[in-house]
Amino acid sequence: MVHRNALMHNVETSTTMTKMYSGKWARGIENQFIHDMRAHQVTLLPYPIQNDLTKALRQQAIEHKDESVTHLWAGQGLRITREMAVSQLMTTLEYETDLTFRRNLNTSE
């Protein structure tokens, strides 16, 4: 629920590339943990060591719904995020895909 809330209330300019949680590059929503780690110029360890070091922190943050320290992975399309049930998502994807194909057929004639 914390991750969903963050996805719904942020935009792509809220994301950053970080190695802070795992030691591998990933795009996530910038939060206090990422900011503090960067500000203190913490030396990160490689994956999987960094991932193991932050595992308990991430688990506790999720359990306590603490958005300030949990990992909030997100791509660059946050602005187009829509909240809906999976069944509605599948129907919407089918409709939008069909619509796109129809438009492409009409423009190629």
Count the domains.
1
Number of strands: 2
Provide a count of the helices. Answer: 4
Q: What is the chain-wise order of helices and strands? A: HEEHHH
**SS-derived structural category:** mainly alpha
The strand order across the widest sheet is 1-2
Strand content bin: 5-15%
What Rg is obtained from the alpha carbons, in whole angstroms?
18 Å
- What's the N-to-C terminus distance? 46 Å
Mean pLDDT: 92
Gross morphology: elongated
**Unreliable stretches, pLDDT < 50, 5 or more residues?**
none
Largest beta sheet, briefly? 2 strands, antiparallel
* Helix-residue proportion: 40-55%
Topology:
Layout: H1 2-8, E1 15-18, E2 26-29, H2 32-39, H3 49-63, H4 86-108
Antiparallel strand pairs: 1-2
Overview of this structure, please?
This protein is mainly alpha-helical and 109 residues long. It has one domain. The protein contains 4 helices and 2 strands, in the order H-E-E-H-H-H. It has helices at 2-8, 32-39, 49-63, 86-108, and strands at 15-18, 26-29. A two-stranded antiparallel sheet has the order 1-2. Strand 1 (15-18) and strand 2 (26-29) form a beta hairpin. It is elongated. The termini are far apart. The model has no long low-confidence stretch (mean pLDDT 92). Pfam families: NMO (PF03060). One of its GO terms (molecular function) is nitronate monooxygenase activity. InterPro entries: Aldolase_TIM (IPR013785).
